[in-house]
Amino acid sequence: MQEILQCGRYRLRLGREDRPLVMGILNVTPDSFSDSGQFMPLESALERVEQMIAEGVDMIDIGGESTRPGAPVVPLEEELRRVIPVIYALRDCGKPLSIDTYKPEVMQEALLAGADMINDINGFNAPGALSAVKDADCGLCIMHMQRNPQTMQAAPHYDDVVGEVGDYLSQRVEEMSAAGIARSRLCIDPGFGFGKSLAHNLELLKNLESLIQKAEVPLLAGMSRKSMIGAITGKPVEDRMAGSVAAALVAAEHGARIVRVHDVAATVDAIKVWHAAR
After folding, report:
1. What are phi and psi of 240, to 5 degrees?
2. Is the distance from CB of 99 to CB of 138 less than 8 angstroms?
3. How many domains does the chain contain in total?
4. Mean pLDDT of successive 10-residue segments in the chain (278 residues)?
5. In terms of residue numbers, what domain contains 136?
6. Alpha helices, DSSP H only, in 26-142?
7. Known catalytic residue: 260?
8. Global pTM value
9. Which residue out of 48, 82, 225, 226 is catalytically annotated?
10. 196 is known as an active-site residue
């Protein structure tokens, strides 16, 4: 498996001997399930990133549209209004900037503004998505999702969740490679909570290494504060930090090279201890 991820202005080391990277979540939406729009004003977003950098974050993932189950679609112009000024303001912060979007127009504008990675819940399947990113040098995160955010949690079903998710991700890697995109730019995300039950999520978490072996690119895992953590712990969103950190450590143990989290300081410390002991 590749050990370097080409991520725009950065070449990220993701070998098994390297510490897994911590991607901090910056939601600039009014309806995020975890932070209720508190980082929407530009100054609040910049303060949060400054805090995450002080806490040791490795990457920043900026999102302008909530993808929680049942979330409404945000119009293109509104998503651009939310995220592009943030990218311009952060482009020289010293950390790779990821944009969480499935819209090709947002991808193009984000790259012009200085984004280093595109994180697409739709696996770059939208018409024009591959064209928007093909000739750039940004990193590309391919996620698996069953159906769409409006319907994905309506009785999700798989005959073999690990096999089906693995087949989808490896197929998308091959298709994007065939389209002329270097594999060194690609990573995968099994999409915890995106059209999966708790049992599906746990089965995927236990079998991350098989997904990595099939796709032969690094894996990003994002479980922070999600409903699977709440179902296991019985805690509301605001009290899911310990469960989320535990999930990140389990993902790292099973081969994840990037963990996407809200609670940066706690996750960074836990990953450092895990990595030192390992």
Report:
1. -105, 15
2. no
3. 1
4. 93 96 94 51 91 98 85 91 96 97 98 98 97 97 83 78 98 98 98 95 98 98 97 97 98 98 98 96
5. 4-277
6. 42-54, 76-90, 104-113, 129-133
7. yes
8. 0.94
9. 226
10. no
